Amino acid sequence: AVVSTQSTGIWRKIFKYLPPGNLVQCMKCCKVWLDWISDPIFWPSINLSRYGPIFPDTLKSVVMRQPVEVDLSYCTITRKQCDWLLPRLPNLKTIRLSGLPMNIIGSLNGPLVSNLRLIDLRWVDDLNDWGLRDLLSVSSGRDQKPRFRDLQGLQLSGCPLTDDVINNIIRYCPNLKHLDLSYNNNMNDRVVEAICASDLIYSLTKIDFSGCPHITDKSLLMMKKCYDLNWLDFRSCREITRGACVRFAHSFKKELVITEDKLIHPPAVDVYN
After folding, report:
1. What angle, rounded to 10 degrees, do the helices at 165-172 and 189-196 form?
2. Are 257 and 264 in contact (CB under 8 A)?
3. Which of 8, 32, 88, 186 is buried most, with the most CB atoms less than 10 Å from its CB?
4. What letters, b where the CB count within 10 A reaches 16 and e where it falls short, cover 89-101?
């Protein structure tokens, strides 16, 4: 059957409103729809979290769609599969590897993985200071600069890191905008002091220290040096008082509000989104 250009455009507009699960079902209807929906425009993000087993055809399908974000959290992907997949996604900007073993995380050291803007390594149980340093310090190109120097987001919630890890983050990720060090018993005011003595004060906009029991009100005083902060999460930080949060929000150069006891953010922001 001949399909007009007009009807193609109409169907493509309709497909854009469908969630990934429905798109997969539509691809099974006919070859024409399969060809249309295989277009990368419909697949900016692919979620394989908690998916398994992962077969070669699954990985080939991901490569064909060239997403900018891939979520592999808690899936059953192997190191060999990850080594094959990541270099074949040159447009990838966000990679989520939460809950995977450090052996899999090592795939980020591949020679062709350097354009990432956000790396999610939350709850990687065997990620320590040395492992993160080795990951971030890998150089690329003739200039021998750290390959993740343009990284904007680093999520390390629940990882067994010490407060010394901040030195490597500052050194190898100088342009971070979002840093998540939540739920770590080793984070303390020294970490904030190091941040405020570095160039990160010019780039950071969001910091998450929720669930860190040794961060105190002193950190809030130091964070006033950060120019563009608009999101600070101190929920479940027992040494942070609500009064200190109120004083910070009222004296900061931007308009900020406090919700959920110790979450500081701009007004009219959906904190659950």
Report:
1. 20
2. yes
3. 186
4. beebbbbbbbbbe
Among 140, 155, 207, 200, residue whose Cα is nearest residue 176: 200
Rounded-to-integer distance, Cα 13 and Cα 187, Å: 48
How far is the C-alpha of 113 from the C-alpha of 119, rounded, in Å? 12
Cβ-contact 64, 88 below 8 angstroms? no
Q: Which tokens belong to 132?
A: 């993160």
Q: What is the pLDDT of residue 42?
A: 72
Distance of CA 232 to the CA centre of its chain: 16
DSSP assignment letter at 214: B
Quickly count: other Cβ atoms within 10 Å of residue 57's Cβ: 8
Q: Dump pLDDT digits (tens) for 90-146.
A: 999 999 999 999 999 999 987 667 789 999 999 999 999 999 999 998 776 566 677
Q: Is the peptide bond before 267 cis (omega within 30 degrees of 0)?
A: no
State how beta strands 139-140 and 118-120 pair. Answer: unpaired
Reported as a single tens digit per residue, the pLDDT across 145-183 is 778 899 999 999 999 999 999 999 999 999 999 999 999
How does DSSP assign 61-123, residue by residue? HHHHH--SEEE-TT----HHHHHHHGGG-TT--EEE-TT--HHHHGGGGSTT----SEEE-TT
CA dist 173 → 61, 118, 137, 176, 242 (Å): 32, 11, 9, 6, 31
> How does strand 45-47 pair with strand 118-120?
unpaired
Which band of pLDDT confidence, cut at 50, 70 and 90, is reported for residue 5? Answer: low
d(CA 258, CA 3): 55
